[in-house]
Amino acid sequence: MKPGQDKIYYVTAETFNAARNSPHLEVFRRKGIEVLLLSDRVDEWVVSHVTEFDGKSLASIARGGLDLGGLDDATEKASVEAEAGEFKDFVERIRNALGDRVKDVRVTRRLDESPACLVADEHDVSANLARMLKAAGQRAPASKPILEINPKHPVVKRLRDETRHFDDWASVLFDQAVLAEGGQLDDPATFVKRVNQLMLEMGGSAAASSTSA
Q1: Is 210 domain-assigned?
Q2: Residues 6 or more apart whose Cβ sits within 8 Å of residue 109
Q3: What is the pTM of this model?
Q4: How many CB atoms lie within 10 A of CB 40?
Q5: Which contiguous run of DSSP H or E holds residue 60?
Q6: Residue 117 belongs to domain with CATH number
Q7: Cα(184)–Cα(211) distance, rounded to whole angstroms?
Q8: Cα 47 to Cα 120: distance, rounded to the nearest angstrom
Q9: Cβ of 186: how many Cβ atoms within 10 Å?
Q10: CA 108, 157, 185, 134: dihedral to nearest 10 degrees?
Q11: In sequence order, what are the residues at sequence separation of 6 or more whose Cβ sits closer than 8 angstroms to the Cβ of residue 71?
Q12: Per the domain annotation, does 144 fall within a domain?
């Protein structure tokens, strides 16, 4: 653990590769903070009962707000708060586009390379646990994910300027975040159809621009 670190961070996933490539790890990699990668089925049960070790609390990096405690960078935190204000209207547009698919939409500082990720609210079950319960034929407590967007990512910047197909692009952003965390889409056929249509629209716009030039 790094000096000043007051929590043991972990991420759970169905497979080791899914845990290792989780977008939630990006800020931790950049800051050199070690994270436990938990991919055994029993791990979800373990972390729900073993909440601390050696006086350090265990904290999921995919749940609630990002809290780095003594490792936090005040300047970086202030920058994200400023971006949250700048992107307020844009975030509201995404929230309206996604409707009841999300509990909330907000600007994140977890991400460096990915455009968006999903996190569970502080007191909701994790997406991985919900998938495990469903696979076992049990009903998971009802909950919706929080979509966090990376305001510095080119895709998000492009979406901010989009007018014609904003709702479709917002849905693609959400579905990509579901896939990135190892989840399954409720309607993969619609996702493919939407992506194909947007690709055709982009191709048509590029061709029209080339012709007019």
Answers
A1: no
A2: 27, 66, 76, 77, 80
A3: 0.85
A4: 11
A5: strand 56-60
A6: 1.20.120.790
A7: 40
A8: 15
A9: 10
A10: 0
A11: 2, 4, 5, 31, 33
A12: yes
